[in-house]
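Long-time lurker. I teach an intro course on protein structure, and each term I like to show students one example going from raw sequence to a predicted 3D structure in token notation. This year I'd like something fresh instead of my usual example. Would anyone be willing to generate the tokens for the chain below so I can use it in lecture? Attribution to the forum is fine with me.
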Amino acid sequence: MGLFDAKKVEKRWIKSGQFTDEELPYASLIQQRRCQMLIHSRIYYVLDENLITDAQFDEWGRELVQLQKDYPDIASKVCFAKAFEDWDASTGAFLPLKDEWVIRKAAQLLNYGREKGVIDNIEHSKIQQSPRIQGSQKPARKKATKQRGNSLF
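-- Reply from a regular --
Happy to contribute to a lecture. Here you go:
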């Protein structure tokens, strides 16, 4: 099965001839960024995992906000238009994270990340980046906070 099944393509995704040749690159990028925001927000807020850095999420979010501002007519015709209508990139917590497609794709991407060892690599890099502290100087152990790492999707 491909990234988008045929049934969903007819309802939601960019259709052949929907945009002019000049509009299509912007429509495609808006669709890509919206999907990334949705999937990675679900992974972060619902599944309590990370596959990308906060900086990457913020960069994609700012780019999407600017694209929607620069091309409002195109943005209004791309998937999840209503959900992103007044979105300011400050958080993905209030996006439609219970959408069937978002749930399925987030699970697939997270499983892929686990299979490829991306999630283990995130934990390993956090350990490698920690400053070395002498045993007597170490603070009491705290629950580790998750940090976004590696860019997927």
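Some talking points for your students: The longest helix spans residues 24-46. Residues 5-11, 123-151 have pLDDT under 50 and may be disordered.
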